[in-house]
Amino acid sequence: MDLKTHTSGAATVVTLTGKLDTVTAPAFEKRIGEVIGSGAVRLVLDLSGIEYISCAGLRGLLVMSKLLKEKQGKACLVGVEGSVRSVFEMSGLLTFFRVEEMVEVAVASVGEGPENPGRR
Amino acid sequence: MIHVEKLRKSFGSLEVLKGITVEIRKGEVVSIIGPSGCGKSTFLRCLNLLEQPTAGTIRIDGVDVLDRRADVARLRQRMNMVFQSFNLFAHLLVVENLTLGPVRLKGMDPLQAREKAIGLLRLVGLAEKADSLPDELSGGQKQRVAIARCLAMEPDVILFDEPTSALDPTMVREVLSVIRRLAKEGMTMVIVTHEMDFARDVSSRVLYFDQGVIHEEGTPDQIFDHPRRDRTRAFIHRIRSLTRRFESPDFDLYALNAEVEAFCEKQILPRPVRDHVLLLIEESLHLCRPFLAAGGLEMTLSHSEATDRTELVWTAPGVRLNPLDGEDLEDTLSLNLVRNLCASVDHEWVDGVNRLKLVLKAGSER
User: Fold this and answer.
1) Which residues of A touch B337 (CB under 8 A)?
2) Smallest Cβ distance to B253: which of A22, A55, A59?
3) Do the Cβ atoms of B337 and A93 come within 8 Å?
């Protein structure tokens, strides 16, 4: 799993690639905790480069969501497609996160309004 | 009719038959199935003494054929054999292949033998090829000639050693239909075959050979639809499996995934199914972590080529514990995923061992 960040407007776009599973989820939780700790609390998570995700990865996303809530931040996911989308659906988590198809729309959605964890 | 008792056959230090006991009655059609190298063909060759058994007895109508005084030539006339490679005489006409035995060995009049041969060729649908050479025939036609040649000796029993394995698939049917016809007419036959549908259809009894013994025997219905033993079931359903043991929570997931992917690739499972198998293993392993902490557990992933069913079984000794009954919120995601990935989820506790069986949904159910 690789994690890269860049700023787009008021949002921080976090691009993930590789596998998000039992092995890599702890590293993800650590890195995303550092990102949020540095003050980036309006996050767009681009999952289009994720080839495999398991519940360990989903739990990592829930940890991220909890950290953002503590800091009145919010997040939006993009690139939730194919097998990754079906894992979100089967686990029942798809409706928990705000999900958009395009990065620009996701950036706009986390950039507007007061800061709080995205939930629709 | 044929009574075989504790038949053994070794080639040097390799024991191929490890004590076969079976009785074949008049009019029975007995099919012998089993994996390659299990001793099926060796058993057949021992029956008509093409191989000399190492130990045991073979009695035909009460006569011990392994007795030194036994008339082997007479035995082979009574119990004739059809080989997978036809074994026709290439330099003789088709009809001459049929008349050679009756004229030379039984002293039949050549004209009478020819008349009978034409009748038998008609029976197998090849009367018009009577004056052809074997090389002018297709594989299926050669095998039908071989069967007619066998019938020319008026045997009491015909032994078929994989009669269709050397044939193009398009020619298999024509040979099998001749054998079916013989079965209907009450001919006693012992057939070594890999044609499962044929064996199911034509046999009165099926012997499943494995590792040099009759591992299971029964009617076609028992063997093909309700096999009692695991190895029979695995063979019938063409099940391949991968078993791994986990002793601690610090297992190497990526090494396991690599093995699972290689296994799935071997079974030619499509990419989405492989992903679901990997996911199911990871999630169920997460749910089974109490077993990991308590001394370990074993995983068996199996796939049936015949039914396209993929199954994951976890076994762990210890107190009764269904890992899917947990109320830990952290497990909810994994539980949801496992239930959505599986067509059925069963837990049982037998003789102090927990057994969790997860059957992956088939393509149409996903």
Assistant:
1) 54-55, 87, 90-91
2) A22
3) no
Cα atoms in the 13 Å half-sphere on the side-chain side of A85: 10
Report the gap between the CA of A69 and the closest CA in chain B (Å).
19
DSSP per residue over A26-84, as a string?
HHHHHHHHHHHHTT--EEEEEEEEEEEE-HHHHHHHHHHHHHHHHTT-EEEEE---HHH
Band the pLDDT of B74: cuts 50, 70, 90.
Answer: confident
8 Å CB contact between A47 and A80: yes
With beta carbons under 8 A apart, name residues in chain A contacting B288: none
Average pLDDT over residues B101-110: 92
A109–chain B nearest CA distance, Å: 27
pTM (2 d.p.): 0.69
- 3 state SS of B213: strand
Nearest-Cα distance to chain A for B283, in Å, is 7
Distances (CA, A) of A89 to A54, A63, B217, B347: 12, 19, 48, 25
* Helices assigned H by DSSP within B107-212: 110-123, 139-152, 169-184, 196-202
Give the whole-angstrom CA distance, residue A9 versus residue A107. Answer: 7
- Interface confidence (ipTM) of the complex: 0.86
| Rounded alpha-carbon distances, angstroms, from residue B228 to B23, B234, B275, B356 | 21, 11, 32, 21
Tally Cβ neighbours within 10 Å of residue B322.
Answer: 14
Tokens of B127: 């009367």
Any CB–CB contact under 8 A between A1 and chain B? no
> Does the CB of A58 have a partner CB in chain B at under 8 Å?
yes
Beta partners for residue B63, in sequence order? B60
Q: Which of B250, B237, B246, B232 lies closest to B309, judged by CA?
A: B237
